[in-house]
Known about the structure:
With 322 residues, the chain is of the alpha/beta class. The chain has helices spanning 14-25, 41-51, 65-75, 89-94, 96-116, 151-167, 198-207, 233-245, 264-274, 300-306, 314-319; strands spanning 5-9, 29-34, 57-59, 79-82, 121-127, 173-179, 181-183, 213-215, 227-228, 230-232, 253-256, 262-263, 283-285, 294-295. A 7-stranded parallel β-sheet has the order 3-2-1-4-5-6-11, with helices on both faces. The chain has a 3-stranded mixed β-sheet with strand order 12-9-14. A two-stranded parallel sheet has the order 7-10. Strand 1, helix 1 and strand 2 form a beta-alpha-beta unit. The structure holds uridine-diphosphate-N-acetylglucosamine. Uridine-diphosphate-N-acetylglucosamine binds at residues 87-89, 127-129, 150, 153, 181, 196-198, 201, 213-215, 226, 228, 264, 288, 291, 295.
Amino acid sequence: MTTQTWLLTGGAGYIGSHVADEFLASGKDVVIYDSLYQGLESRIEYLRKKYNKDIPLIVADIRDLDTFNKTLEQYKPYGIVHTAALKAVGESMEKSDEYFQVNLEATTELIAIAKRNNVKKFIFSSTAAVYGSPDSMDPCKEDGPKAPISPYGDSKYQAESAVTAFINTPGNHGTSLRFFNVVGAAAPELLDNSVENLVPIVLGKLNKGEAPTIFGTDYPTPDGTCIRDYVDVRDIARAHLAAANATTKLPDTMNIGTGRGASVREIITLVLEATNKSDTQVIETDRRAGDPAFLCADINLAKSAMGFTSQYSLEESVRSLF
Ligand code: UD1
């Protein structure tokens, strides 16, 4: 049997490199396509050593369609996992044109090039941001209301349609995976290097001797702080492998979360405990604009369609960061 080769856009990123790790562990070959704008070559170096393999890294932007086409011609991948994107919600408000160019237009072009090169499998990284800021305290279902409130969420939501058109072409296969709040790391070398999310922000503050901040303590939740579905990046990687190996038709979109909510206060307490800093003062400020009180995944579809459920507990995810 020949080894399957998968092209991973954004494969030097936090999520992409974990997908690469999972695919390599399962015996697949990977080719990494990454601009290194946020990706790190050191993550690929780590994987090369871990698997004793010469993992190709093509350093190029996904808007460089000529290079993308040449990469497909050269490596003839069996499938594509497309994680490359701009992902900062706040930044997307100021740079919406660029977010649509990278997350929507480039994705649409990549799919067209994939088709021309006879690639039949495409797995897309989408996001819970497609649900926007729901009023409801019910877990989000894939076919429920979608109302993204940022250009980031909107660009991903619109890109899902291009993926859906591709995977519903006879002979093609794939899905869009909507990640909830991703945490954890498989190894120190693969840690999240961005400082846009709650756990990295809190850790960064503690390292500088500063107090973590809670944005809003008057939400209609048991402890007054926002509830999110924090899913381990290793589970995100496992979900990609399950989608890549699925032999039956997958739903167009699937939530990838744990189905369990955790509050900001719970997360900060866990991080303080893990760092032996439980006596640190925590600052409480006003709500941050646009934050829903509750955003959790209904996880039934990924379970029924590909037998996927998350494995890692929140405690394990937080501990994996040290
Ligand atoms: C949002 C996006 C998500 C995206 C992520 C990337 C939505 C619905 N979700 O998630 O798709 O991947 O941004 O940036 O748009 N918080 C504090 N103090 C802090 C930092 C955060 O209290 O210092 C709180 C926030 O108010 C929020 C929770 O922690 O309630 C999680 O925040 P964050 O990690 O930024 O993610 P989301 O806003 O949930």
